[in-house]
Amino acid sequence: MAPTGAAIEVRHVSRTFGSWTALRDVSLTVNQGELVTLLGPSGSGKTTLLRIIAGLEEPDPRPETAVFINGVDISRQRPDERKVGFVFQHYALFRHMSVFENIAFGLRVRPRNARPPEREIRRRVGELLELIQLGRWASQYPSQLSGGQRQRVALARALAIEPNVLLLDEPFGALDARVRQELRRWLRTLHARIHVTSVLVTHDQEEALEVADRIAIMNQGRIEQLGTPDEVFHHPASEFVVTFLGNVNLFHGRVEAGKAVIGRLALDASRALPADGETARVFVRPHELDIDVHRTSGASVRARVLRIQSAGPLVRVELASEEDDTVRAEDTINVELTHQRYGELMIRVGDTVFVRVRDARVFVEDYSI
Amino acid sequence: MRLTVILIAVGFVALLVLLPVIAVFAEALRKGISVYAASITDHDALSALRLTLLTAAVSVTANLIFGVAAAWAIAKFEFPGKSVLLSLIDLPFAVSPVISGLVFVLLFGAQGWFGEWLIRHDVQIVFAEPGVILATIFVTFPFIARELIPLMQEQGTEEEEAAVLLGAGAWQLFRRVTLPNIRWALLYGVVLCNARAMGEFGAVSVVSGHIRGRTNTLPLHVEILYNEYNFSAAFAVASLLTLLAVVTLLVKAGLEWKTRRDRRPLAVEDQ
Predict the structure, then answer these.
(1) How would DSSP label each residue in B205-266?
(2) What are phi and psi of B231, to 5 degrees?
(3) Residues of A with CB below 8 A from B167's CB?
(4) A152 at the B interface (CB within 8 A)?
(5) DSSP of A30-50, one letter per residue?
(6) Which of A330, A346, B188, B202, by CA, is between 20 and 30 Å from A265?
(7) Which stretches within B30-81 are classed as H helix?
(8) CB-based burial, B31-66: b 16+ in 10 Å, e otherwise
(9) Residue contact B167–A109, C-beta within 8 A
(10) Residue of chain B whose alpha carbon sits nearest to that of A84
């Protein structure tokens, strides 16, 4: 099959390390100029996939396996021939070189006939220093920079070789929360400006949702779902995707007449449900639940308020279900209310209230993609 | 308390280190400067000095190549038999130098495994310079590798990976990234290796055959002179060896100071 015009095309890649399978027949296409994040828990294979694209890791040899960059099969190219920019979690800056020399490295190691003249190197590094806003730090050493500054230098160093694609392995993983958020925004702006095709690995769902054009959610060596942040958040393809993207309440119910039924609650499923009588698992995000002081309709769950945490943009309420077994809720029920709604309700710890489901995702037991 | 501890330390050093060093020079110069000069410019002494310097130069070079290769392999790659290699590197530390010398006699001596073959091809190893050099290389080969392995393991492989992805070939990678990162540890290993190569007695004594003017190194020459009751000459030659040791010590101190200064900023934590 001929390669498409995609920036990156990974076909049927598997990778085993002894008895451990890191990747199971993964295929992925990244379009030109796109920023795709690989999101998953540790051990899901996301870093292995990134390292295979870079050439730092070899996929298992199988006839159908191939990796293309800009339509060229790079499976047999050495990592130094692939022209990919790579940013490591722990920066991997050359500790004995100044910021300037770190960024210039990729230009200086080129063979003599491809190496730009010194004047051109200075100009290019100068531009990149400008881009990462570290012009004043050119002669400093990595050990003299903060973590956030180091990672910006690492990014400039990767961009200096004008890479075909930019690969980032947990680039903000070693930074504290505030710097991480700052850098995330900065990366998004930068990407909008230079449009280099990028793949970013992260285990932080908030980070993935914020920076990505598309997200590939990985679990146990497979891509569970690939889609825009909206798609994966609002239309998750599997239970794993729902539970991985933020807090979620789980209710157990049954399928009756094409609806998922939890006690007196009947919910429309977003997809066709199988035969009646099957057990249905219903996932509801905390902000998709509402609380009423009195039972307004049959479709609610009676519960007791255990805890209220009102410091923050939303009020988090923890409740224990008081319904019989048909409304078995896993652990406690978590609800997020706006401060306005909380003010209207005037609930306190110990009150008995009614939890109403506004939206939900239904999966049937044994459901598999 | 403080005074007592200091006195004990200084007293020991004075008694066990400083005094012998002074004694060496005092004995060497006891019969006057002309006897001293004659002793160290004697043909046999100069020959021993030459062989010592040659042995040190060859051993250091050989172990430099072996040490860097072994440390690189062990620190940066996974391969079967890695732990065996690591233990084997330590072998010369564990084995008595005399045994190390004997091994070479067993291998290359006239009655040894390769003895017949060597005689047929007119190659002499034992009781000749090659034997002295081989034994010295064996005894000193852990020094450089041992110095580099922990450092290279601590530094990991990420910088190398980054360099390769930026387009660096193998030689560029070594010259621009790996070597600068290990240079001080490498020099320190070279200094230690050199000190041991110049001072080695046991292993060399077994394989050298003590042929004056041909297969004697400085330590062997000192012993011969001493056994002949030629104390002034023995101490004069010993003083040469001592001077070499002092130079080595100074270089080592300088390197330690430099390593400490270079490492300090690396300890700065993120954020």
Answers:
(1) HHHH---TTTT--HHHHHHHHHHTT-HHHHHHHHHHHHHHHHHHHHHHHHHHHHHHHHHGGG
(2) -65, -45
(3) 80-81, 83, 106, 109-110, 161
(4) no
(5) E-TT-EEEEE--TTSSHHHHH
(6) A346
(7) 33-41, 43-76
(8) beeeebeebbebebbebbbebbeebbebbbebbeee
(9) yes
(10) B165
- Model pTM score: 0.81
Instruction: Say how many C-beta atoms besides its own lie within 10 A of residue A208's C-beta.
Output: 25
d(CA B126, CA B204): 10
Tell me whether residues B180 and A96 touch, CB distance under 8 A: yes
Indicate the residue type of A124.
R
What is the rounded distance in angstroms from the CA atom of residue A338 to the CA atom of residue A280?
Answer: 29
- B270 closest CB neighbour out of A81, A106, A174: A174
Say whether residue B162 is in contact with chain A using an 8 A CB cutoff: yes
The predicted structure's pLDDT at residue A366: 53
Q: What is the ipTM of this complex?
A: 0.83
Please tell me the predicted confidence (pLDDT) of residue A86: 97
Instruction: Please state the φ and ψ torsions of residue A68, each to the nearest 5 degrees.
Output: -115, 140
CB-side exposure of B219: number of CA atoms within 13 Å? Answer: 19
Residue B9 is predicted with a pLDDT of 93
**Does A366 touch chain B if contact means CB atoms closer than 8 Å?**
no
Torsion region of A113: left, alpha or beta (phi above 0 gives left; psi -120 to 50 gives alpha): alpha
Per the listing, tokens 């290990």 go with B182
Please enumerate, as own/partner, the contacts of A56-60 that have beta carbons within 8 Å and a separation of 24 or more.
A56/A86, A56/B161, A56/B165, A57/A15, A58/A15, A59/A13, A59/A14, A59/A15, A59/A23, A60/A14, A60/A15, A60/A16
Closest approach of A81 to chain B, Cα-based (Å): 6
Kindly state whether B159 is in contact with chain A, defined as any CB-CB distance less than 8 angstroms: yes
Q: Is A54 on the interface with B (CB under 8 A)?
A: yes
| CA A218 to chain CA centroid, nearest Å | 9
Q: How far apart are CA B162 and CA B177, in angstroms?
A: 10
Query: What number of CA atoms fall less than 13 Å from residue B161's CA on the CB side?
Result: 22
Q: Say what the pLDDT of residue B78 is.
A: 85
Q: What are phi and psi of A7, to 5 degrees?
A: -70, -45
Any idea what the Cα angle at residue B116 is, between residues B113 and B118, rounded to 5°? 95
| B43-100: pLDDT as tens digits | 999 999 999 999 999 999 999 999 999 999 998 888 898 889 988 998 998 899 999 8
**pLDDT number for residue B257:** 83
Q: What angle do CA A165, A166, A167 make, to 5 degrees?
A: 120
pLDDT along chain A (369 residues), means of 10: 79 94 95 95 94 95 93 91 94 94 95 92 95 92 94 95 95 89 90 92 92 95 95 90 88 76 68 67 87 78 90 91 64 88 90 85 61
Interface-testing mutation among A57, A74, A80, with chain B (most B C-beta atoms within 10 A):
A80
Distance CA B155, CA B185 (A): 13
- Residue labelled with tokens 């298992």: A60
Measured CA to CA, the distance from residue A56 to residue A62 in angstroms comes to 18
Check CB contact under 8 Å for B165 and A82.
Answer: yes
Could you give phi then psi for residue A216, rounded to 5 degrees?
Answer: -105, 115
B177: CB partners within 8 A, 6+ apart: A94, B159, B160, B163, B168
The token pair at A145 is: 């920079």
Q: DSSP readout, B3-29?
A: HHHHHHHHHHHIIIIIHHHHHHHHHHH
